Amino acid sequence: MNELLTSINPATGIQIATYNVHNEQQVELALQESVRTFNEWRLLPYSRRAALLKKIAKEIRKEKDSLVTLAAIEMGKPFSQGHYEVEKCAATLEFYAREGAGFLKDEIVKTDARKSYVSFQPLGTVLAIMPWNFPYWQVFRAFAPTVMAGNVMILKHASNVSGCALAIERIILKAGAPKGLLQTLLIPSVRAEQLIDDQRIAAVTLTGSTGAGRKVAAAAGRNLKKVVLELGGSDPYIILADADMDKAIEIAVRGRLVNSGQSCIAAKRFVVHNAVKKEFEKRFTAEMKIATYGDPMEGQYRLGPMARHDLRDELHGQVMRSIALGAKLLCGGFIPDVPGAYYPPTVLTNVKKGMPAYDEELFGPVAAIIEVKNDKEAMRVANDTIYGLGGGIISADIKKATQLAVSELQAGNCYVNDFVHSDPHLPFGGIKQSGYGRELGSYGIREFVNIKTVFIK
Fold first, then answer.
1. Active-site residue list
2. pTM above the 0.90 mark?
């Protein structure tokens, strides 16, 4: 009997589809195909690679509505956010089609040689292990720079978005890509290590939990393979005493509720100066209370369900344990009596060190408010975390906020007067237990290349 992967609609709890897991023979054929394709793809000029990326972007836009619907059904993404995600994928493909050749241009270095320079050469097949929360964006932000650099990719996607994973492969092939440029393998996570062990996998990129990152890093390290890890986050947003409160509330609500709160760079801990804490708390809670949630297939809601019931239950447990330790519940904090994996926008205040809401990542629509007395304490609290992915500072004093962001805030992405978001122009990644390596920008395209010194006497 074949092993199956099952997709369940988190808005209804009803099974959508089942997928046969790829067996060992199918995995072997995929690896062979990736080698064949790489040996041809790596020799193509940048102009040919760029032309294909543009065609893929065009096909994505053609199928935008069906892709958005599929994401809504498989992981509960609201339609408006799904449209934004798909468009961002297309724009990123076009960005690397336009800029990739320049990022990888030979760099002349003056030495005592007749000529010496740095050349950027592809590595081979990159294994992409991707999560469910942005089922298209996470894949394409890795795919676009990786294949523009001359590599090929094997995708092991989260099992609950197998339909999205197969749709990605189908669209890339429809655009005219060779069969082995991106291949989706439907396998459980426990089999990913076997792929990393295979000598035909040259490198690995993972977006996922810190726990998954440790396992992948260990396997890659054992095989001495390059790996990029984009892991969890508990992003602090520092509301200074001089913050424009209208702007602070807008940024806080958007930052916390993006993707129904299921984002590694969502705003999670709100570190608020005591001079404005009362006003921020009141207005922020009022906005969170009115944020609507429901089935994306039935209306325009700000939030959909969480992606799985177990994830919802885990989040609720973190809320309850924080309250038991002294946190105060201002809104939300209950499991709705409906079939779907819903959780209402929730605000906790009086949050202290030792509580899950302070120490752990809250991967869902739950906000933690932490009061501080001054800027120095605000930075200490913001940095008092195992994570270091993103963070924001809200202040009317741009010079001071920028200095704090550059010199004090311990994160890979520091935003002043805006919520953290990824942009193909800029490198994206974290420090500490949020991972290492960078995606996007010029740095991202150089992660999976051989930075080769050429010296001619």
1. 230, 264
2. yes
